[in-house]
Write a structure and sequence with these properties.
There is one protein chain. This protein is an alpha+beta fold and 106 residues long. The protein has two domains: 39 residues, no CATH class; 57 residues, no CATH class. 27% of the residues lie in helices and 21% in strands. It is built from four helices and five strands; from the N terminus they run αββαβββαα. It has a three-stranded antiparallel sheet, with helices on one face. A two-stranded antiparallel ribbon has the order 1-2. The longest helix has 11 residues. The chain is elongated and about 75 Å long. It starts with 7 loop residues before the first helix and ends in a 5-residue tail after the last helix.
Length: 106
Amino acid sequence: MQLRLIDADALKGKKFYSHERREKCVSVYAIDMMPTIEPRPHGEWIKECLQIDEHHFRSFAKCSVCGCGFKPYSFAVKEFDICPKCGADMRKLQASYEQVKEGGTK
């Protein structure tokens, strides 16, 4: 049996009350009939620098999938597991950032 992604929120609307179990349930048929959704793209936060003046720079994070930018870089990497604009999964870079922060290697 091959795994597939389905919309869990849409599946919640297919629940029915089971008098036997005394709770709301979802039938196997309803699960099988749910359409497959596209997998989420994977991306990473790219560190970009912006020169404010002659001696000052500010770093920001840019999504590698959609190009959406967030300031500062460390905030975006720590706070966003997915890009708020396009939904790309950023967790791989999140894990490597935590390793570097804790003194490990990539």
